[in-house]
Amino acid sequence: EEILSSRPAELRALVEDAAGLGVFKRRRHRAELKLARVATQVERARDVAGEVRSRIRPLALQATAAERAEKLSAEVAALESRLAALDAALLEERLAELEERRTAAGLARRRSDERLEALLVERRAAEDELEDAAGRREAATAALYRVRSGAERLAVRSEAIGRLVDPLRRDADESERAAAEEPAGPSRAQLEAAATAARAERDAAAGAERVARDRLAALERVLEEREGLPPAARALAERGERLVLSELEVAPGDERALTAALGTRASALVASDPQAALRLLDQARQEGLGGLTVVLERALRQDVRIVERDELLDVESGLAATRDGYAYDPARGELRFAGEPAEALVLELEARRRALAEEVEAAGERAAAAAGAADGAERVAQEASARPIPRRLGDPRLLRGLAALAERADAELAAAAGLAARLEAPLRARVDAGAVRAGEIGAELRRLGAAEAELRREAAEAGERAAALEVELVQLMRELASLRERAGEIAPDEGEDRDEVATRLERTRRRLEGVGPVNPLAKQEVEQERERLAELVSQREDLERSLDELEGLRTELTETVERRFEETFTAVRDGFADVAATLFPGGEGHLRLSEPEDEDEAPGVEIELRPAGKKVTRLSLLSGGERSLGAIAFLFALFLARPCPFYLLDEVDAALDDANIGRFVELLRRYADRAQFVVVTHQKRTMDAADVLYGVTMGPDGVSQVVSRRQPRDDAVALAS
After folding, report:
1. Burial letters 451-488, b for 16+ CB under 10 A, else e
2. Which of 163, 274, 333, 660 is the most buried (most CB within 10 A)?
3. Lowest-confidence segment of 179-183, 204-208, 327-331 by average pLDDT
4. Structural domain includes residue 632
């Protein structure tokens, strides 16, 4: 019933199974699935290849631009290297020129420094000379002042003595006239003695003053030939500050011993306390007077012992010195030798000059005292002339002696005035010469100062030029190193024009700027995309070849299926017609291919049965037995088309009547020599026709048992019930 009710496609499937087309169809199905998958992959590969091709074109343009920019960049780099080589050559020339200029500037600066140093030495010498000239001028001025003062005092005294001469003479004449009447008293002898003592004192004072002046002149001449005190000490001493040597009392012959004992303090200044010492030092520093030593006043109170050389080292405290210039300070452990250095000698001479100046002042004082005594005598004479002298006291000889004494005093004062006049001329000459020399030295100092300023300016300018050249030289050396690094191994061609290279470089740079921004990775990317495209094309070609192979396999399988189906269908159709003729005596049965409902579907198989005496248009109009016989005919047609060792038929005869069962049994016997048939049935006639019977029954114990029975028959038909 199921067979006859099946659709044509289902019947075709049964025929295909009989033809063994399931394997081929499954292979074809797998091939079609793979074909669809490969077709999809091919399509995808084509799409991806299209996308890659669409990217390759702009990337190729970018790569072309990048390649062009790379070439232009290489050309720019080459031109820059050549230009750098040319600039380096020019810079080397400039560097050599600057090196020469720096050397010349350094040489000029050294010459300026040497000239400046020589000028400073000359200026210091001029300043020292100016200080010496100023000192000598001041000393000469002081001496001139003292000479003028002494001359003025002598002139006044000479005039006064001159006024006394005439009265004394008149008194002498009167005394002579009165001498006969009265003897001279003791007052005249006293006056004469006083006058004699005054003359002696005046003569001694004049002699001492002359000796002192001679020694002072000799000492000043020696001092003119020696260097003076240090500039700072001299300058401050001229302003009234006290020197160490001026504060000490030195016995004649002990000068070298004192110089050795004092050491560098011999040219120092004296201060009353530390604050005064600091004031002097600050004053010397602020005025730029140079080095200065200041000794406190209490330090000068220490006595210096003058000893023999053998006793020098035995001294345990204080200062000790020898007259030949050795000094020893036990507290400091110092042993010094004064020797005859210029500074010590100058200090010694300066001390002697001061001592002689003091002697001159003492002589002047003694002369003044003598003049005072003379003045006393004059006053006595004046008093004698003013009042009448008793005749017993008016001795004409005494009066004449006084007159003679007055005349001699006048003559000596005149001589002293002449000496003063004679001393004034050379002193004035020395003062004037000192002023002239001071002016000359001042002019020389101004000239030296101007020259020094000019030399300092030139030295500063030379230093600035040297510094500027040094900075420019360092900068040029850096630029040269950079240019050499940029130029690399490129050497400039001889005769190559730098301007032409610079023009080409500028033109190439404009071309490079015209290219615009580029993708430096475009060349690499386009190569990668091309490789990817080639790989995709290769994969697509492989897929297309696989697609062709699968298509060929499918076609081949389709052809095989169709051919074998055609062969099997023909065999089944023939077998069906044969079996149908057996099962339907006088009737007929046919198999035909139906038209498919879908173009993609294969044509199905339809069964046509026409029992004898019936015109059946549809199988549904057949009886149940006829339908069963039709199905049996189709099954046996399939069996005949594809023979098997045995066949299993499960109650196919259930709907058959006895006549049709007979036909069925006849059909089994007809093909029993080809195969064995196992029939499951409840029909007795079918069981009677079997060779062997197999049954299942229940034994006495209630257990199912299989029972078999072989029937003696020649037919090879086995029936089971």
Report:
1. ebeebeebbeebbebbeebeeebeebeebbeebeebbe
2. 660
3. 179-183
4. yes
